[in-house]
Amino acid sequence: MKEPLKYSLYDLSLYFLKLGTWGFGGPVALVGYMHRDLVENKQWISEEEYREGLALAQLAPGPLAAQLGIYMGFVHYGLLGATLTGFAFVIPSFIMVVLLGMAYRLYSGLAWIQAVFYGVGAAVIGIIAMSAYKLTIKSISKFELAAIRSKWILWLLYISGVIITIVTEREDVLLFLASGLVYMFIKAPPAWTKKPSPLVPSVFLVGTGFWQFADDKLWDIAIFFTKAGAFVFGSGLAIVPFLHGGVVKEFGWLTENQFLDAVAVAMVTPGPVVITVGFIGYLVAGFPGAFVAALAVFLPCYLFTVVLAPSFKKIAKNPAIKAFVDGITASVIGALTGAAIVIGMRSIVDVPSAIIALCSVLALIYLKKIQEPAIIAIAAIIGILVKLV
Q1: Deepest of 9, 121, 146, 318, by most Cβ within 10 A of its Cβ?
Q2: What are the E-state strand segments in 191-243?
Q3: Is residue 290 in a domain?
Q4: How far out from the chain centre does Cα 59 lie?
Q5: Alpha-carbon dihedral angle through residues 214, 215, 216, 222, given to the nearest 10 degrees
Q6: CA 108, CA 261: separation in Å to the nearest integer?
Q7: Other C-beta atoms within 10 Å of 137: how many?
Q8: In Å, how far are 82, 113, 127, 352 from 373, measured between CA atoms?
């Protein structure tokens, strides 16, 4: 008899609404929160289901945290669950960036946002570091000699992910695929490698269209941000250079300073970092621009996830596929750790910011009852005091 679910679709949607409202820290922290809350604390999602979702989210293009959230909704509630959790996760930060876009237009600058980001960015590094550490010991092994020896291949893939991400400053999907294939062929070679197979299964992905607006600028926004959502893999760290090339260099929609302000707004708001597209869209074409930009960047990842998820879940029990997922996961978490290091090098700019980051880590370790939003709020106040007082 099938075990009844421990949660309803309403419970899961409410969780993602809260995560989208209070989940600071970007993709690394957000996927860490999902693991802590849904797998460890609530036990709504199994460790295996989470790892499958993380691997699928990294294999498909688009924002990592949003894809994982969509998959978490799909696990037990299918298409409706994926739709509601995705919407609940994105809508709070979308509303926030639109409101900030209105304020930006009115006051022509965000000096206080930059001051807030100074403190918040440093605290976020501490939160990200703790999330990356927990994911590492959970998915690879503990930092013990015997455990490292037994999982040395996974550790090698993990370290490769760290180094390549630091050097290239982006996540490389080819690295993840190669890691999965290497580990699969070493640990559990699939049957087709031992004997000829008449057919090789293929996965065909569906495409999508967008409304055709009379305003040429809205149409340009739709096309550009669809490309950003469909062809950029990994976290917000990966999409920022792509956005810069189009928004500043190709179209000239924003100046360099405006683009940096847009990234700052995304970092000081909760939810996925990619929601910066809503702020950019608002500056370019008001609320219609914000809506089109957000829809364009998130819809491809939603479609990729719901199209691939059913087949991915069915074949995930296969030993070869499980080894493939393990290899990908090791490389993915290595890339997330590398991304944390890259972001840290950009956010920790002086002694005060380093102290804020260190205190954030210590608070998470020793003050068990303190929550991330409280740390973020305190860091924001410190940032204002340091920069503006």
Answers
A1: 121
A2: 233-234
A3: no
A4: 12
A5: -90
A6: 11
A7: 12
A8: 26, 17, 10, 20
Token duo for residue 279: 């702020």
- The number of distinct structural domains making up the chain is 1
Overall average pLDDT of the 115-124 stretch: 79
DSSP assigned state of 61: B
Domain that holds residue 78: 9-189+298-388
Tokens 């604390």, located at residue:
41
Place of tokens 């621009």: 289
Report the alpha-carbon distance of residue 215 to residue 284 in Å, rounded. Answer: 12
Question: Which residue type sits at 40?
Answer: E
What global pTM score does this model have? Answer: 0.64
- Residue 303 maps to a domain: yes
Identify the helix (H) or strand (E) that includes residue 63. Answer: strand 62-63
Q: Which three-class secondary structure state does DSSP give residue 332?
A: helix
Residue 223 corresponds to which tokens in the numbers above?
């096309």
Model pLDDT for residues 24-56, shown as the tens digit of each residue: 766 777 888 899 999 999 999 998 889 888 878
The span from the first CA to the last CA of the chain, in angstroms, equals 64
- Contacting residues for 154 by C-beta, under 8 A, at least 6 apart: 140, 141, 183, 326, 327, 330
Is residue 271 left, alpha or beta, with left meaning phi > 0 and alpha meaning psi from -120 to 50?
Answer: left
Residue 69 lies in a domain: yes
* Residue 62 φ then ψ, to 5°: 110, 180
Contact predicate 40/212, CB 8 Å:
no
* Dihedral-angle region of residue 22 (phi above 0 means left; psi in -120 to 50 means alpha; beta otherwise): alpha
| Backbone φ and ψ of 23, nearest 5° | -85, 85
Residues contacting 178, CB < 8 A, separation 6+: none
Measured between alpha carbons, how far is 382 from 65 in angstroms, rounded to an integer?
28
Asked, for residue 109, whether it belongs to a domain, the answer is: yes
Per-residue pLDDT tens for 255-314?
Answer: 877 777 787 677 667 777 678 888 898 888 888 889 999 999 888 888 888 887 777 766
